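User:
Can I borrow your eye for a moment on a structure tokenisation matter? Would you put together a sequence-and-structure record for a protein of your own picking? Please set it down just below, with no commentary around it:
AI:
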Amino acid sequence: MADEFMKGFGILVTAGLGWLVVAGWYKTPSFQGPQLLGTYPEDPGVYTQIAIALGEGLFYFAILGALAFWVLIPVINQAREAYAERK
């Protein structure tokens, strides 16, 4: 179980750091306003659009990847063991 925890934690930290970088660059208009949760630029260029898509993908990958290794895989393993014992 420790290896699943560390895989999920690694995904959360790595993808979360990538999201923080992209959000810091594109969603922080000033230090007095909302930081990391502001709005994206209204007329982004091609590279900005790629970075925004990458940032959004990293955010959801961090959340879903950690949940997959912390919740989904252990539940599947326990269900397999319970099924094998019952059989």
